Amino acid sequence: MRGNIKSRKAKDGALYALMATATFFILAILGFIIAFIVIKGIPGLTWEFITSPDWHVGVWPMLLTTIYVVIVSLVVALPIGIITAVYLNEYAKNPKLIRALRLAIETLAGIPSIIFGLFGLLVFCRFFGFGQSIIAGAFTLSIMILPVVITSTEEALKTVPMSFREGSLALGTTKIQTIRKVVLPSAMPGIITAVILAIGRVVGESAPVLLTVGIAKNVPKSIMDSGRTLTIHLYYLTKEAIDESSFQQAFATATILVVFVIIINTITRTMTRKYEQRMGSVI
Amino acid sequence: MGRKQVIDKIFKNFFLAVSFASVLALIAIIVFVFAQGAIPFFTWTAKSTHLIPYGIDEFKLNGETVRIADLPSNAKYIELERQCDGCDIEFRNKGEAVTLTFKIDLDEDIVADRVKIIETGGGEVDYPEEFVYEVSYKGAIAGQKSGFFIAIPQGPTKFFKEFLFAKDWHPVYKKQYGILTMVIATLLSTFGAVIIGVPLGLLTAVYLAEFVPKGLGKYVRAGVDLLAGIPSVVYGFFGLMMVVPLVKNMSGAPAGNGLLAAIFILAVMMLPTVISITETSLRAVPRAYREGSLALGATKMQTSWKVVFPAAKSGIMASIILGTSRAVGETMAVIMVAGNSPQIPTKLSDGIRTLTATIALEMGYAQGRQNHILFSVGIVLFIMILILNSVILVLKKHMTEES
Amino acid sequence: MSDNQAKFVIKDLDLWYGDFQALKKINMTVNTGEVVACIGPSGCGKSTFLRNLNRMNDLIDICRWEGEISIDGDDIMGDMDVTELRTRVGMVFQKPNPFPMSIFDNVAYGPKMQGLHDKAKLHEIVESSLIKAALWDEVKDRLKKTALGLSGGQQQRLCIARAIAMEPEVILMDEPTSALDPIATQKIEELMEELKKDYTIVIVTHAMHQAARVSDKTAFFLLGELIEFGETHQIFNDPKMKQTADYIHGRFG
After folding, report:
1. Which single residue of A81, B61, C169, C200 could bond A149 by disulfide (Cβ 3.0 to 4.6 Å)?
2. Which chain A residue has the Cα nearest residue C90?
3. DSSP H or E run through B292
4. Mind telling me how many Å the CA of C184 is from chain A's nearest CA?
């Protein structure tokens, strides 16, 4: 049973070419997006643009708003997320309970961000009376990033070898001591990766932020104020563009976001690789 | 039990309690959004017809004098009865008498017939909105008009006839809340994105999992990760600055914002999801399948597509569905490139408005029923996603059964 | 079958995994129509040797070999395409590895990959292969059902049918019964008795009695070296080398 080797090789070659083309097409799109934005954005990315509190000229108020939103949402989401991951990975035994928790987390991860926006608007802005404010937005986003924090922390906890826990427990420590002194510190690089991923999510998010944080352009005085994050600023710059300078600003703002994403990706990549190498040598 | 064990136990229970935050959040989201979104389908916008005077100090309603100054400070309107055969209003302004007689029957099915003006004297009647009569005083100085608004309450919106399968979306003036155009827009743009994004993603994933030279794979994967990390507004911005003009030039349409631009951007945005999950599931296919196929004289390419690929099909389906969910739920990128006109597109270059776009665009100023209806739109979106999610759950079950 | 014609000629085969030399200067000739059993303790290189005959070792990045292997006088590294070699040399693995598709599709897979799409012809091949693999009666009513629903022994016979469907000249068997229960093992051994009439077979086995029962010749491997190769009868009754005798009499294992 032997077919025509030549025709098979030709078919395989064509398919290979198709696959390679698809791959490089995708990479080309990515490269093009980044180059297009960064090349046009760099000229506008002056010191004044970044630090001027005047929203006509720069993005300082938006940077501040973004930073506030990131901090507050992390303060809420990190403890809850890490504790949930610890519970799931170290304590939970009842399979039904585990399944229920995981189902909730997965469903939460799949909900479109705009729905989180609706929820945040309803509950935090209206029901709790925060109005459109940084705090309302941060609470909303903290729910949104919970799944990211939980799953990546769990990944980190899973890489901690069982022998570490056994070694510690064998010395007569309690479970909570083992977790605090042995498990969490060993998983720390992984947890930091989770934090960075969460920061990336918050900074890049837009739809729920629009509904809950609002669009106020001035420097926020407190987290109870409304504000405008970088992403929403970019959206409004293009929406309300009046002249060339608006687009110049939009390109510069987009460049900040793109560069930020590249930095975040690089950090998480290197951290994951280093961490895997270290853990690999332990196991 | 020693002190240490007690502390251990306390921590354990505390952790358990905290773990339920996700469950609680999920339940709260479902309950609140559904409760709010259900309101339009079960309630009237107001219990009765409202009479809202403006620029008037005093008038007579059915012969009784109403003084605005005597009303409670926060009441801006007077509630009328649900049914009355001949209500009349009289008031004077600059000496001239204005009278108005009308009939109210809120049990009428047709909204326009619920309140009927029978007779007017000395005033002008306007219908600025289908649900509001405006009676204004003739000869009033521009900008200082005086008169009444008669706001007619709207009954429960019929879910299928007036919402899901209705085409007209005129939330402010005509109070029409048909979302059919948006459902179709969401389905079309998602479908288009799947048609483009899935084949591209799958080809790339198989290349990455099976063929890519080692040194290169690292960079491709980094690129795919980066694609996943780019914020949606940046995609939208790129689309607006690059894709929209391109579509405009190619199609000759007056504007490039529309279905095609949305499809392109959504296709790119779903790629990382499709690629990374497909690659993972391809890698999870047991080596024995590959060896079995190769030992039968199949080429590596045949092995990859005829054995490994089908063996990973549950995971691949899951990747496609997750990518689809991403396209369905995407908001800002679509708003920026899609044109946002609520219509059923006939060409690829036609403007569309998705469900998500409607929520984000109108939430800022929506009042009353419109505000509630936007939550109803959220429910429709939510149900779409839940359906997709449950398909994934079924697939996951399949996967565990297979292995 | 024309006997005593060299099918496989292996000359000075050296093989390394990275720095580790797994096979040392192996020389062997497998004649057409013979059944050759390779025995030896775990890690002696017998499976590696077998997997080199249809170049399955190509899949392992760190694996590298020198020497000469020819089938019917054709160098397997020469002009011959590796897929051609594998159509001529079928293989059955240690663990049954049917594809996650229907029984029919499993058997039809190989011919289809060679470009055969004629339905009637495929049916014919599937039926005759399953009959030869003594599986036809058990599965003829559920050809469209998934192969993963079969028992382990049935799966292994399906894998044999799958190999037969390619009309190979040689069938390599890598401990084909080690993952099976005794009854399934017995069935496979009976099947081997049948197959040896039509095919040249090289089998790696842990079970000494299996080698003794089914093979014409036996090769004893130890630490990557071919210690002794000869008539099965002679190897088991009158081994020339001391290590062979020790192994056969269970003095190490």
Report:
1. A81
2. A1
3. helix B287-295
4. 29
Q: Which chains touch C (3 or more CB pairs under 8 A)?
A: A, B
| C87: chain A residues, CB-CB within 8 Å | 1-2
Chain-chain contact of B295 with C95 (C-beta, under 8 angstroms) = no
Token pair 């030549």 is found at A6
**Ramachandran assignment for B148, one of left (phi > 0), alpha (psi -120 to 50 degrees), beta (any other):** beta
Q: What span, in angstroms and rounded, lies between the C-alpha atoms of A212 and B96?
A: 50
**C-beta of residue A150 within 8 angstroms of C-beta of residue A88:** yes
* Residue A282, min C-alpha distance to chain B (Å): 24
Count of all residues that appear for chain A in the document: 283
Q: Are C97 and C176 in contact (CB under 8 A)?
A: no
Taking alpha carbons only, the member of A14, A161, A152, A167 closest to residue A77 is A152
Q: What is the rounded distance in angstroms from the CA atom of residue B311 to the CA atom of residue C109?
A: 14
Q: A60: how many CB neighbours lie within 10 A of its CB?
A: 17
pLDDT in tens, chain B (403 residues): 688 888 889 999 999 999 999 999 999 999 999 999 999 999 988 888 888 887 777 888 888 888 877 777 666 788 888 788 888 888 776 667 778 888 888 887 777 777 777 777 766 677 666 677 777 665 555 555 667 778 888 888 999 999 999 999 998 877 889 999 999 999 999 999 999 999 999 999 999 999 999 899 999 999 999 999 999 999 999 999 999 999 999 988 888 899 999 999 999 999 999 999 999 999 999 999 999 999 999 999 999 999 999 999 999 999 999 999 999 999 999 999 999 999 999 999 899 999 999 999 999 898 889 999 999 999 999 999 999 989 888 887 877 665 5
C101 three-state secondary structure: coil
> Which tokens go with C70?
């020819």
User: B278: distance to nearest CA of chain C, Å?
Assistant: 18
Query: Residues 6 or more apart from B249 whose CB is under 8 A from it?
Result: B256
Min Cα–Cα distance to chain C from A8, Å: 8
Contacts of C110 in chain B (CB under 8 A): 296-298
DSSP secondary structure code for residue B156 in this structure: P
CA A282-B4-B5 angle, 5° bins: 90
Question: A31 to each of B76, B265, C57, how far by Cα in Å?
Answer: 59, 15, 39
Cα–Cα distance, A86 to A179 (Å, whole number)? 8
- Chain C residues with CB-CB distance to A7 below 8 A: 115
Q: Which chains touch A (3 or more CB pairs under 8 A)?
A: B, C
Q: What is the pTM of this model?
A: 0.91
Quote the CA–CA distance of A81 and A83 in Å, as a whole number: 6
Q: How far apart are CA C75 and CA C77, in angstroms?
A: 5
Q: Is C46 exposed, middle or buried (0-12, 13-18, 19+ CB in 10 A)?
A: buried
Please tell me the distance from the alpha carbon of residue C15 to that of residue C32, in angstroms, as a whole number.
25
CA distance A248 to A229: 18
Q: In what helix (H) or strand (E) does residue A174 lie, and over which residues does it extend?
A: none
Q: State CA C55 to chain mean position distance.
A: 12
Tell me the count of A-B CB pairs closer than 8 A: 239
CB B83 within 8 A of CB B107: yes
Cβ pair C202, C122 in contact under 8 A: no
Task: Report phi then psi at B38, rounded to 5.
Answer: -80, -20
Of B289, B294, B302, the CB nearest to C99: B289
* Nearest-angstrom CA–CA distance, B303 and B312: 13
Distance (Å) of CA A168 to CA A172, A177, A187: 7, 9, 15
Number of H helices, E strands in chain B: 13, 12
